[in-house]
Amino acid sequence: MVFATIGLCLVLNAAYSQTPGGKISGLVLDNAKKPVDGATVILVTAKDSAVVKSILANPDGSFAFGGLSGSYQVRVIYIGYKNYRSQQLSISDKQTLDLPAITLMPAGKTLKQVEITADKAFVENKIDRTVVNVNASISNTGANALEALEKAPGVTIDDDGNITYKGKSGVMVMIDDKPTYLSGADLANYLRAMPASMLDQIELMSNPPAKYDASGNGGVINLKIKKSKARGFNGSVAASVGKAKYWRTLESVNLNYHVNKINLFANLGYGVQNNYRRLDVGRTYLDANENVTSSYNETAFFHPTTYNPNLKLGMDYYLSPKTVWGFVLTGTMSSGHNYNPVNSMIRDNTGKTDSIITSDNNTNTKNYSGGINLNYSHQFSTDKSLSFDLDYLKYNNSRNQSFFNNTYNASGVLGSTQFITDDLPADINIYAAKTDYTQPLGKAKLSFGLKSSYVNTDNAANYFNVINNISTVDNNNTNRFIYQENINAAYASFNQDFKRLSIQAGLRAENTNIKGHQTGNAQSPDSSFSQHYTSLFPTAYILYKLDTAGNNSLKLSYGRRIDRPYYQDLNPFVTILDKYSQFSGNPFLRPQYSSYYELAYSYKSVLTLTAEYNPITDYQVELDNTKAGGIFTATTDNLGRRDHWGVTANIGLSPVKWWSFNFYTEVMHNWYHGQIANLTLNNSSTYFYFNDSNQFTLSNGWSAELSTFYVSPLQDTQFTHQYREQTNVGIAKKVLKNKGAIKLSARDIFRANFSAGTITNIPGTLATYHNDNANRSVTLGFTYSFGSTTDNRKKRQTGSADSEAGRVGN
Fold first, then answer.
1. E strands, 170-291, where?
2. Could you report how far apart the first and last alpha carbons of the chain are, in Å?
3. What are phi and psi of 3, to 5 degrees?
4. Helix segments in 139-233, DSSP class H
5. Virtual torsion, Cα 132, 138, 140, 143, nearest 10 deg
6. What gap in Å lies between CA 434 and CA 47, rounded to an integer?
7. Can you point out the beta strands (E) in 629-723?
8. 787: left (phi over 0), alpha (psi -120 to 50) or beta
9. String of b and e for 628-640 (b: at least 16 CB within 10 Å)?
10. Which burial class, exposed, middle or buried, applies to 94 when counting CB atoms under 10 A from its CB (0-12, 13-18, 19+)?
């Protein structure tokens, strides 16, 4: 696949084809007759000045617009120079118009340095996505990427780090259009280790087009890392110290050096996380007549301390004004320790204490990951391009645990002692290659591409019973699981704009081949499984402008997606959480399929109203149950169906010069129905959610922020969740000639964000839980930017491993 991809790129790069429609080209020079690299060139219609396309001039000052027919005007904007406006230009369908060189004249006043001080809005709504500008929020100072993501409109995160968007799970999380390959707790820990100061934007896509992998019922969330495109040397530094239950620090450095044809960039981050969680669990056991037989209450404390350095290095080489080669190296190294004492009490049917269990649980972790990306792009013309990506990623995770349990009778006399240790190594290798090609067809555009990926995971679970300091293998739980997956995909997409109507349609085909092998031991034999399936994923979009100015518009979209099981969820062996809690995988877990229908109305960038419907078949859910000895087990299984209806509203306004706000709200209804194991589910719930962010611009470089979110109680299969709410405040002061800022922020100031609820539909068991994550915190941070700031060109996002996102394990 790799050689085929490179061969296709070289053939298409050498090929020559005539772009349909007329063409306007030109050259932008300064008053010294030198090319102006990065000038903004805008093509507008002569009749009403409607923008047709906006591009940046190439390093040699050249620009070109294709696929034209009619009367136009060219405008050029560049900082420090007067704006340029051409005369009316008329062009026929097959005409090529080469303009005389455009010479920009300096502005009336010579500027030693030009600084852009306008602040971006916190949220920007675009035709296919919502964009969150991370640095526009003061309370993101000192925060990590997970905390910044939680404040994005429509995004919620549970205690295990599972991310939902607009009430839907199965979100594909990407970084710079590259998958994270992590899920659940592993993804949460990775994002906690990444300072929010390294992020530029968060892109939210509920219905991604065919170019994106079909994985993820909840759509795509893309985290864009800061990367300057300015010439010369520039960068930024950020540091913060904060305290919740314990102290923590976050530091980051972003560097960029662009000279001649080479652009070098680096992002470095380091964080010390000192987290806290208290978990209270209650379980009441019933007989066949619903009479209480016994009860179990547990209080567990978690104090994980982790040290998280991460690094991203890259280079872009501009072989020509239209051709770029690049590579990116990434690496993270996380190590830490979690002390987890647990106190449990078992009572009989009268409420009298039967026994008390005290547990000292310890976990040491070391996680290493590294990746290399090779990318290439060539711009044949304005609307004709070719690109490819080759990726290799390596994950090496190790986890060593010890569980020391003492059981006492009601009088406090020691009855038994249990000591279990384990060694849980995991190795993951991921290879991926993809290519994308775009070809104009008159006023329309056709895109198509190919992708192939291969994933190999090797997980071991080595459990030992320790008696009198002698360790013996526990063959009941010891195991090794090897998993291989190959996905091959192809897509085609077509779009065309008319006067007030825009249409886009796409089709993606994905072929999946997987093999799983569970090795045997002295007690259990080998077992294996394989799956092969091919699926089609159509997408369609229609956008209609209700008025000629385009202030009011309607959008109708449809898409079909897939959620393949997490690698760890297919792993059949048991993971011990504590003496009475376990998790086991399910090798028979099937992928779930979903369809997404959306109707949206927009007024400018001020108001967006959306109605959506999202049915899912073979819905993957966590199934909690009990087995002999009162042990609580969790696994993932397929429920027949989930239907999701909802309406959302997003309002962004600036009522006065010094105040702007963004308010997002949703009302969602979920219906779950089907069979899981021996359990029949048929329940539904409606919930309400809102997220409000207020920005205040004060005098003398001061600014402030107030943000809050609220989630009403809701039902999710077996889980009934209580409401959650959080309020954040922040204040900032610009310093050092506006290049630096000091920011003070406080999160969850009313200490109201707790996760609690009940677990229902467990045969013979009633269960409750309550989590306190010590969300209230205060953080002091400092940021400083230095070097040149003038942008000169756009760089495409890279990455070829989209469909494997978020599936490394829990």
1. 172-175, 178-179, 199-205, 220-225, 232-243, 247-259, 262-274, 277-286
2. 30
3. -70, -35
4. 145-150, 184-192
5. 180
6. 42
7. 631-656, 659-676, 679-697, 702-711, 714-716, 719-721
8. left
9. eebebbbbbbbbb
10. exposed
Give the pLDDT band of residue 186 (cuts 50, 70, 90): low
Question: Distance between CA 385 and CA 427 in Å, rounded?
Answer: 37
What proportion of the chain, given as a percentage, has pLDDT over 90?
A: 45
CA-based R_g, the chain, Å: 28
Tokens 């190959």 appear where? 486
d(CA 765, CA 623): 13
Task: State both tokens at 343.
Answer: 């106190």
- Lowest-confidence range among 143-157, 252-266, 277-291, 767-781? 143-157
CA–CA separation, 664 and 710 (whole Å): 11
Read off the tokens for 516: 């799983």
Quick: pLDDT tens for 272-284: 989 999 999 999 9
DSSP designation for 803: G
pLDDT of amino acid 302: 94
Question: What residue type is assigned to position 704 of the chain?
Answer: A
Contact 339, 376 (CB under 8 A): no
Strand 172-175 versus strand 220-225 pairing type: parallel
Q: Helices in 182-299 by DSSP H: which ranges?
A: 184-192
The whole-number pLDDT of residue 321 equals: 82
**Nearest-CA neighbor of 219 among 176, 158, 173?**
173
User: What are 515's two structure tokens?
Assistant: 């093999």
Distances (CA, A) of 791 to 227, 335, 739, 740, 788: 11, 38, 17, 20, 9
Both structure tokens of 578: 């504590």
Task: Give the other-Cβ count within 10 Å of 303's Cβ.
Answer: 15
Angle at 808 between CA 564 and CA 278, to 5 degrees: 110
Dihedral sign (CA 520, 521, 522, 523):
negative
Q: How far is CA 99 from CA 86, 88, 102, 383, 767, in A?
A: 10, 12, 8, 19, 75
Q: Determine the Cα–Cα distance for residues 317 and 667; give it in Å rounded to an integer.
A: 48
- In angstroms, the CA 172 to CA 49 distance is 39
- Contact between 284 and 250 (Cβ < 8 Å): no
pLDDT (tens digit, 9 = 90+) per residue, 214-253? 888 788 898 888 766 567 898 888 899 999 999 999 888 9
pLDDT at 792 over 50: no
> 19 Cβ partners below 8 Å, 6+ apart?
66, 67, 381, 383, 384, 440
**pLDDT > 90? residue 527:** no
Q: Is the Cα torsion angle 85, 88, 90, 96 positive or negative in sign?
A: negative
Give the integer Cα–Cα distance in Å for 39 and 62. 10
Reduce the DSSP state of residue 146 to 3 states and report it. helix
Query: Which residues are 73's β-sheet partners?
Result: 44
DSSP 609-642: EEEEEEEEEEEEEEEEEEEGGGEEEEEEEEEEEE
How far apart are alpha carbons 616 and 673 in whole angstroms? 11
Say which residues have a Cβ less than 8 Å from residue 52's Cβ, sequence separation at least 6: 43, 44, 45, 65, 68, 72
Between CA 176 and CA 326 the distance in angstroms is 14
DSSP characters over 334-385: EEEEEEEEEEEEEEETTS-EEEEEEEEEEEEEEEEEEEEEEEEEEEEETTEE
Report the alpha-carbon distance of residue 357 to residue 414 in Å, rounded.
10
The per-residue pLDDT of the chain, averaged, comes to 85
The rounded Cα 601 to chain-centroid distance in angstroms is: 26
Among 188, 204, 175, residue whose Cα is nearest residue 146: 188
For residue 768, the model assigns a pLDDT of 95
Classify residue 401 by burial, with Cβ atoms within 10 Å: 0-12, 13-18, 19+.
buried
Q: Tens digit of pLDDT for each residue in 600-626? A: 999 987 899 999 999 999 999 888 887
In three-state form (DSSP H/G/I as H, E/B as E, the rest C), the secondary structure along 415-471 is: EEEEEEEEECCEEEEEEEEEEEEEEEECCEEEEEEEEEEEEEEEEEEEEEEEECCEE
